């Protein structure tokens, strides 16, 4: 059964992960974030309890 032979597929997987790790990933990580997180504190709105008409 050719599916169980890892010889060609293991090399392809290893080559693709090395390409991603060494070439593509550093280029992607150099991009600036388009929406950087802000240091503002989240605002909380005042809520009133719900008055249930049947209680």
Automatic annotation (TrEMBL):
GO terms for molecular function: proton transmembrane transporter activity. The chain crosses the membrane at residues 6-24. Its main location: mitochondrion. The keyword RNA-binding does not apply. InterPro entries: ATP8_metazoa, ATPase_protein_8. Keywords: ATP synthesis, CF(0), Hydrogen ion transport, Ion transport, Membrane, Mitochondrion, Transmembrane, Transmembrane helix, Transport. It comes from the Eukaryota. It is a single-pass membrane protein. GO terms for biological process: proton motive force-driven ATP synthesis. It holds the Pfam family ATP-synt_8. Belongs to the ATPase protein 8 family. This is ATP synthase complex subunit 8. The lineage of its organism: Eukaryota, Metazoa, Chordata, Craniata, Vertebrata. The gene is ATP8.
């Amino acid at each position: 059964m050719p599916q169980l032979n890892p010889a060609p597929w293991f090399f392809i997987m290893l080559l693709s992960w090395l390409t991603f790790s060494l070439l593509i990933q550093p280029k992607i990580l150099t991009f600036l974030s388009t929406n950087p997180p802000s240091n503002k504190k989240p605002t909380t709105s005042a809520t009133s309890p719900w008055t249930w008409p049947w209680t």
